[in-house]
Amino acid sequence: MPVNKTNKTLGDIPFSVLDLSPIIAGGNPSESFRNTLELAQLAEKWGYNRYWLAEHHNMPFIASSATSVVIGHVAAGTSTIRVGSGGIMLPNHSPLVIAEQFGTLESLFPGRIDLGLGRAPGTDQRTARALRRDTRNDGQDFPLQLDELRAYFDPSLASHTMPVKAIPGDGLNLPIWLLGSSGFSAQLAGQLGLPFAYASHFSPANTVPALEVYRRSFKPSKVLDKPYAIVGVNVIAAETDEEANLLGTTLQQQFLNLIRGKEMQLQPPVGSMDNLWSEYEKQAVEQQLGSSIFGSPSTVKDKLQTFLDNTQADEIMVNTQVFDHKARLRSYEIVADIIKHVTYEQFF
């Protein structure tokens, strides 16, 4: 990424949490959901802005497949932090069903729910067929699905009278975000004047080009008068660089297993990856994790600032995939402390 000089500092923007409700080796979804709620409650205490959960299917290391259900669980166990989807894979669902689900969530937790939408399946093709039933629905009609979904919340957006209403949902002012790892959703979000979230945590190479497409194509709307972009990034913070790098081998193993088509629960860290991957696999993993930040508080602070310089993000969403739950909590706490200290230094 080219470095762009900017006066924007880490204390100038919100930080948020992306959670996949990881299932560790020897663990189970019940444990993952307990850990998710504890992290959400602490994230709220530490000052994070929003807490998003992601839809993935047929993945042994991710428990958040029924994303709207887990969002309700987290929202019920917190009181102020925004809770939402990062994201719901809309082609897997009827727009009406998603409107009703998120209309229900917004009615239960007014002013706290975000609806982030993606057009990928969030799984392999066989599972996508099992989810969608109609194999012709490959995501190409995502813009039409999006139009339908938005019209359930705001019927004035419809090109014709809506014969079916989403109840709950109709008339609710629910923030809709487009998520992406390419230019397609970036351009669509810009053209519609919607906020955009880019998945730099697994697709770093296209981060800056996609953000440029979004900002260049942006047209003001009644939702936004200027672009607003969240950028996701993997961060593993610990007391030392060495500890963070050790914890990071869990994430490296996860991506190595994905490359090999060998999906399994989240694995414990290892002292070295050298005996686990070939040189080709190492390069492939490092390419996918190219924007990831592992390190001590000072290292993470410097690398986060560089990431902000490069992306000009309006908000950074942190994803932390580590094996040990306490180490995961500590990582998010360190990041929150970094932001607080930067903010304090700006004012004093």
Describe the model.
By secondary structure, the chain is an alpha/beta fold. Helix content is 43%, strand content 14%. The chain has 11 helices and 9 strands. The chain has helices at 29-46, 67-76, 95-108, 125-132, 142-153, 183-192, 207-217, 241-259, 279-288, 297-311, 325-347; strands at residues 15-19, 50-53, 82-89, 113-118, 176-180, 196-198, 229-237, 293-295, 315-319. The protein has an 8-stranded parallel β-barrel, surrounded by 8 helices. Helix 6 (183-192) links the parallel strand 5 and strand 6 (196-198). Helix 6 (183-192) runs parallel beside helix 7 (207-217) and helix 10 crosses helix 11. The longest helix has 23 residues, at 325-347. It is globular, with a radius of gyration of 20 Å.
